[in-house]
């Protein structure tokens, strides 16, 4: 599906069982909230978490923040009840955990239509299993199927490390082929993709370097576990003043009458093509959307 440009620089997880976090979210500068019913919630707390998330979303107060509810898998005792709660809520998306193949998303999409889900409700997919890495292209292609409503991939690097036994080391060398495969799959499907979490939330230097790496890789943003990760994450994933100025400059250059029929021109000693101007247009749109939000 074609998604309107929406900044998704930061997506903060919070356990649905943590009422204080759900309240605190209303005052945080964050693009997306990932209200969790799955891994961050113990089995005994699943019912409480579901009720708290349902009540918090109904009460509102989250402003422009995109609200995403991570449900338990449909093969667990909680998944279907979670889905019913999410469908009745005003959330923007359901995050489906441990997607292995397109059939997992088709199954959720089918349930959404059975429960008459509002048409604006999207699906996001956790990419966190070995099967998902091998099926990434097919899962990403669900982004082209309006019945499935897929609009975003979320890398689940902790589960991926567990299931593959690959280690999460500084620089993430072992993860890199999967991360980049998923970036390509997301782009081919026309959807967004968010990088995995950085567990050591007190390690500011390590976090900043992983944010920069994710931005270089083409990730749209990063999933976060703690509010202190928000500001450095936004710094890494927002277009810089220089990026925006350059984007405007090359677009202005191509708009000049003498360049109307040219495919490549020189600006400040660099070759730029129309594809660079198109990339620049996206930078400008993201920067404008961020500015409109502030
Ligand atoms: N969302 C919203 N608020 C959060 C938060 C989160 N993910 N993590 C911490 N906070 C709040 C705390 O409530 C606290 O607020 P307060 O000072 O107003 O009381 C403040 O930020 C500072 O928290 P701190 O004491 O540093 O951390 P903690 O020990 O309370 O919590 C974690 C640490 C890791 C348990 C917590 O950050 C967390 O649960 N993160 C999300 C985990 C998760 O969802 N994982 C699943 C996906 S990987
Ligand atoms: Mg997981």
List the helices and strands and how they pair.
Layout: E1 10-15, H1 19-24, E2 32-36, H2 46-59, E3 66-70, H3 79-88, E4 93-96, H4 102-114, E5 122-127, H5 130-134, H6 136-141, E6 150-155, H7 157-164, H8 176-189, E7 192-195, H9 204-217, E8 221-224, H10 230-237, H11 241-255, E9 264-267, E10 270-273, H12 274-293
Helix pairs in contact: 9-10, 11-12
The structure holds coenzyme A and magnesium ion.
**Which CATH class of the largest domain is shown?**
Alpha Beta
Q: Give me the CATH fold name of the largest domain.
A: TIM Barrel
CATH level 4 superfamily of the largest domain: Phosphoenolpyruvate-binding domains
The gross shape turns out to be globular
Percentage of residues in helical conformation: 40-55%
Please give the order of strands in the largest beta sheet.
1-2-3-4-5-6-7-8
Q: Give the count of helical stretches.
A: 12
Mean pLDDT: 96
So, CATH architecture of the largest domain? Alpha-Beta Barrel
What bound compounds does this protein have?
coenzyme A, magnesium ion
Strand content: 15-25%
- How many discrete structural domains? 2
Distance separating the two termini? 27 Å
Give the low-confidence spans. Answer: none
- What structural class do the secondary elements suggest? alpha/beta
What Rg do the Cα atoms give? 20 Å
> Sheet bearing the most strands, described?
8 strands, parallel, barrel
Number of DSSP-assigned strands: 10
Summarize the helix and strand pattern as letters: EHEHEHEHEHHEHHEHEHHEEH
């Amino acid at each position: 599906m074609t998604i309107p440009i929406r900044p998704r620089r930061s997506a903060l997880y919070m356990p649905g069982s943590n009422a204080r976090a759900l309240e605190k979210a209303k005052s945080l500068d964050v693009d997306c909230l990932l209200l969790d019913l799955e891994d961050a919630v113990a089995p005994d707390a699943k019912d409480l978490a579901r009720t708290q998330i349902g009540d918090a979303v109904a009460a509102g107060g989250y402003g422009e923040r995109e609200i995403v509810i991570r449900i338990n898998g449909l093969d667990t005792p909680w998944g279907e009840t979670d889905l019913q709660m999410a469908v009745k809520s005003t959330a923007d998306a359901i995050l489906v955990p441990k997607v292995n193949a397109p059939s997992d998303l088709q199954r959720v999409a089918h349930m959404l239509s059975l429960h008459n889900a509002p048409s604006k409700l999207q699906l996001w997919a956790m990419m966190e299993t070995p099967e998902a890495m091998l099926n990434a292209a097919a899962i990403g292609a669900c982004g082209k199927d309006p019945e499935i409503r897929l609009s975003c991939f979320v890398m689940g690097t902790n589960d991926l490390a567990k299931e593959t036994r690959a280690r999460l080391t500084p620089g993430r060398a072992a993860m890199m082929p999967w991360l980049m495969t998923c970036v390509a799959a997301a782009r081919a499907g026309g959807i967004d993709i968010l990088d995995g979490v950085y567990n050591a939330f007190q390690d500011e230097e390590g976090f900043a370097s992983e944010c920069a790496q994710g931005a270089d890789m083409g990730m749209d943003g990063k999933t976060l576990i703690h509010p202190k990760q928000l500001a450095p994450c936004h710094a890494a994933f927002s277009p810089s003043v220089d990026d925006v100025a350059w984007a405007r400059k090359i677009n202005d250059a191509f708009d000049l009458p003498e360049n109307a029929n040219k495919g490549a021109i020189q600006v400040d000693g660099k070759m730029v093509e129309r594809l660079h101007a198109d990339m620049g247009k996206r930078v400008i749109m993201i920067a404008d959307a961020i500015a409109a939000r502030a």
